[in-house]
């Protein structure tokens, strides 16, 4: 009987190795005698200098070298990092130089690098470097930076506008002017950090035996790292190997290539010595990309029932000091805003502002949390204005399943039309509402208020773009041991790739999971890949492994058929071998073998020296496939959250958190649930804790985990997940991505719940994160306003 693994809750195959301390993380890889790099970083958000004096640092015992921009070779000084996603709308395609070229444009930008025997020595040496800084004007808040005559974030720039994007469906201005009802509101969502358990890290080693540079990186995209290091250092890919080994979290910021990968690689080449670097938590807060800063002014038009007629949004987005990923974050946000709703008229004016802050990069959700926050808050505003139920207004506006595939009327980041491929959004929302006992909430809320407690409930919906191209590939082959090897470029940072891709291969071959060997994220083992971001690996790599496994299965059965003298249809695959089916055993002559091992088939396939090859084709038993999707797939989710707000302290306790979720065919429920649980934890941080505070000089004020708050274990409830499956027709497995839908609508749902709890105070909340002291201040302002109104009425 064929084994079934796809769709079953298989425990993760990688966990035993990781929890028994056998993981291989970049920071743990320390070749004997390796040297440590440490970066001197700008203490100012914007400054320039004419000279750097590193003589005292170079003289410190244990220091091997110190380099600043002027010490780099000419071919490296002349280059800036490639723009990863070019777009003709970009007015200022600003990317990094290897080290800052006499101008620093954010606190934390690398100015010089010290190579020493230890990090401690290198840090001491950094204190001895003199830089004659001239502090410059700062582009701080993105709204102010967008104004004429604002201080330029770069001396070479005439203004701080990186790009202007207009997104249009129909005629929003006309719809709003003619609508029976309209509302206006302002929204703000602040930036935060990835804060992975493992920070960024790099090790570079030059192998003298093959004259090849090997780089290990705690990153998300080894092939992108290889491409950019190769481009910057002039290395052919045959001379450069990049490995992303076990990685302790990524969340998007590790998806780009930073100064450090290139500099450490160059140091290993130049010094002919292994060099390593690992960031500390302060560097995580000041030198690793961040995301979310965005202001929005929104107008919405609707009819008497609450049906959407049009939305116009004017957005100012903080892109930071450079554009390593181009403008995809706000572009994705613009195309995400309609969500699961029919929106006949829509206009977004989007201005991307350059500031003197760490560059904006994808962070779990990548532009979508900001868009969903605006849309879901508008849905709540419509419900409040009309006195209707928030869930009912959402349902009224939802795309119906019979409308699938649904053309939204927008163009996605991949230049293809945004077309929702499958799903039942009303049913998914109802599943979540039923699980949350939504229909009885008002009674629970009424009873709680009599007891002096303030309960609230909130809803957030999302349609998430997943499975983006261009491709992801795999090779599946029979190993000499008789096991099946799966080779792919897809790098994991905790998602469980090894498990799900092993499941796909094991099911195709009718074998056990322990008969599959998994190899990934090593450019020496697989030639090409893209990276792990945008909830794309299950769709692309999963489909690739499925296709390659099918090809190899046919190949193996045909070789076995030739050897056993029986049609391939009469054979079956078992762990480590091919066997004649019981019902077909009568077709084979007595005394002849009825089975053959995969190891023997491989030997026969490779051929016998001096003899003609067997007739099955190429030697070896191997198949390669690259899956290139024709368009994105769209998963969806509904979040329902119930909170208890302490109005004296502002503390928010999340009582229940429910997620209705549809990612098409589920490969492994345990892994999907884990992704959602982790995503919700991230969303709770975005809503209530994570605030990357800057002062008026763009100096970061929250640079340790004492100041930059993260949700702790008691702040994150067990998420109740109800799963539905609407398989997509766009790939052979019917799957959609599941990596970010736990995060994207979380802030909107939590803020809605807090506002719902504070109804007696008539508090309106249009921002996040919302920390406890801000809640107390809002309640205080609301009480003061109410007293003032009472006194005026009395007068």
Mean pLDDT: 95
| Relevant CATH superfamily of the largest domain | Aldehyde oxidase/xanthine dehydrogenase, molybdopterin binding domain
**What is the percentage of strand-forming residues?**
15-25%
Compute the number of structural domains: 4
The end-to-end distance, rounded to whole angstroms, is 85 Å
Do you know the CATH architecture of the largest domain?
2-Layer Sandwich
Give the helix tally. Answer: 20
Instruction: Name the overall outline.
Output: globular
Q: What is the CATH class designation of the largest domain?
A: Alpha Beta
What kind of sheet is the major sheet?
A: 7 strands, mixed
DSSP strand tally: 31
How much helix, percentage-wise, in residues? 25-40%
Rg to the nearest angstrom?
A: 29 Å
State the secondary-structure class: alpha+beta
Identify low-pLDDT runs: none
| CATH fold type of the largest domain | Aldehyde Oxidoreductase, domain 4
Structure description:
The protein is of the alpha+beta class. It folds into four domains: 29-136 and 196-286, Alpha-Beta Complex (Aldehyde Oxidoreductase, domain 3); 137-189 and 293-388, Aldehyde oxidase/xanthine dehydrogenase, molybdopterin binding domain (Aldehyde Oxidoreductase, domain 4, 2-Layer Sandwich), CATH 3.30.365; 398-468 and 630-795, 2-Layer Sandwich (Aldehyde Oxidoreductase, domain 4); 469-627, Aldehyde oxidase/xanthine dehydrogenase, molybdopterin binding domain (Aldehyde Oxidoreductase, domain 4, 2-Layer Sandwich), CATH 3.30.365.10. Helix content is 29%, strand content 24%. It has 20 helices and 31 strands. A seven-stranded mixed β-sheet has the order 4-6-1-14-11-12-13, with helices on both faces. A six-stranded mixed β-sheet has the order 9-17-16-15-10-31, with helices on both faces. The model has no long low-confidence stretch (mean pLDDT 95).
């Amino acid at each position: 009987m064929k084994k079934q693994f796809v769709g079953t809750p298989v425990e993760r195959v990688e966990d035993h190795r990781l929890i028994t301390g056998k993981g291989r993380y970049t920071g743990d890889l320390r070749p004997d005698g390796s040297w440590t790099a440490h970066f001197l970083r700008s203490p100012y958000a914007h400054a320039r200098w004419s000279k750097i004096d590193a003589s005292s640092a170079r003289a410190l015992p244990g220091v091997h070298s110190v380099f600043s921009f002027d010490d780099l070779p000419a071919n490296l000084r002349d280059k800036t990092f490639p723009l990863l996603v070019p777009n003709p709308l970009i007015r200022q395609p600003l990317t990094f130089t290897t080290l800052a070229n006499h101008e620093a444009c954010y606190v934390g930008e690398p100015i010089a690098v010290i190579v020493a025997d230890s990090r401690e020595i290198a840090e001491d040496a950094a204190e001895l470097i003199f830089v004659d800084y001239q502090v410059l004007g700062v582009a701080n808040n993105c709204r102010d930076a967008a104004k004429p005559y604002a201080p330029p974030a770069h001396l070479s720039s005439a203004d701080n506008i990186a790009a202007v994007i207009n997104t249009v469906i129909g005629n929003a201005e006309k719809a709003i002017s003619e609508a029976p009802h309209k509302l206006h509101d302002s929204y703000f969502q602040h930036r935060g950090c990835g804060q992975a358990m493992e920070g960024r890290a790099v090790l570079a080693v030059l192998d003298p035996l093959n004259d090849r540079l090997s780089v290990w990186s705690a990153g998300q995209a080894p092939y992108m790292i290889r491409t950019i290091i190769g481009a910057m250092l002039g290395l052919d890919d045959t001379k450069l190997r990049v490995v992303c080994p076990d990685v302790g979290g990524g969340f998007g910021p590790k998806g780009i290539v930073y100064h450090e990968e290139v500099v450490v690689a160059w140091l290993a080449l130049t010094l002919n010595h292994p060099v390593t670097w690992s960031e500390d938590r302060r560097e995580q807060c000041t030198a690793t990309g961040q995301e979310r800063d965005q202001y929005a002014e929104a107008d919405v038009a609707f009819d008497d029932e609450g049906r959407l007629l049009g939305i116009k949004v004017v957005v100012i987005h903080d892109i930071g000091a450079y554009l390593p990923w181009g403008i995809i974050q706000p572009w994705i946000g613009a195309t995400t805003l309609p969500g699961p709703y029919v929106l006949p008229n829509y206009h977004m004016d989007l201005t991307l502002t350059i500031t003197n802050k760490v560059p904006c990069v994808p962070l779990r959700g990548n532009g979508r949390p900001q868009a969903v926050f605006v849309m879901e808050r508008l849905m709540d505003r419509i419900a409040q204005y009309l006195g209707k139920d928030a869930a009912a207004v959402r349902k009224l506006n939802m795309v119906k399943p019979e409308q699938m595939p649904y053309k939204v009327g927008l163009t996605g980041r991949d230049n293809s039309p945004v077309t929702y491929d499958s799903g039942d959004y009303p049913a998914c929302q109802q599943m979540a509402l039923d699980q949350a006992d939504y229909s009885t909430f008002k009674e629970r809320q009424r009873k709680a208020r009599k007891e002096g407690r303030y309960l609230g409930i909130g809803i957030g919906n999302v349609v998430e773009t997943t499975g983006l191209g261009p491709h992801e590939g795999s090779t599946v082959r029979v190993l000499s041991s008789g096991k099946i090897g799966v080779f792919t470029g897809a790098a994991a940072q905790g998602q469980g790739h090894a498990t799900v891709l092993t499941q796909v291969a094991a099911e195709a071959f009718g074998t056990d999971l322990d008969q599959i060997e998994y190899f990934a994220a090593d450019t020496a083992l697989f030639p090409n890949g893209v990276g792990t971001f945008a909830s794309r690996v299950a769709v692309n790599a999963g489909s690739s492994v499925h296709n390659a496994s099918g090809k190899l299965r046919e190949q193996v059965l045909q070789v076995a058929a030739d050897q056993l003298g029986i049609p391939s249809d009469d054979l079956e695959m078992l762990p480590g071998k091919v066997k004649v089916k019981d019902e077909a055993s009568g077709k084979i002559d007595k005394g002849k073998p009825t089975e053959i091992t995969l190891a023997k088939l491989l030997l026969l396939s490779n051929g016998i020296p001096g003899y003609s090859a067997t007739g099955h084709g190429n030697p070896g038993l191997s198949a390669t496939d690259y899956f290139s999707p024709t368009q994105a797939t769209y998963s969806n989710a509904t979040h329902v959250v119930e909170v208890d707000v302490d109005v004296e302290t502002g503390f928010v306790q999340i009582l229940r958190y429910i997620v209705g979720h549809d990612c098409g065919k589920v490969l492994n429920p345990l892994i999907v649930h884990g992704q959602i649980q982790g995503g919700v934890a991230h969303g709770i941080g975005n809503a209530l804790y994570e605030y990357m505070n800057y002062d008026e000089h763009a100096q970061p004020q929250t640079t340790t985990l004492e100041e930059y708050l993260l949700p702790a274990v008691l702040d994150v409830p067990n998420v109740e997940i109800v799963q539905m499956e609407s398989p997509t027709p766009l790939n052979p497995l019917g799957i959609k991505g599941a990596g970010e839908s736990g995060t994207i609508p979380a802030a909107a749902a939590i803020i809605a719940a807090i506002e719902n709890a504070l109804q007696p105070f008539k508090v309106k909340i249009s921002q996040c994160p919302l920390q406890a002291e801000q809640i107390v201040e809002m309640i205080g302002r609301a009480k003061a306003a109410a007293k003032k109104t009472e006194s005026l009425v009395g007068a």
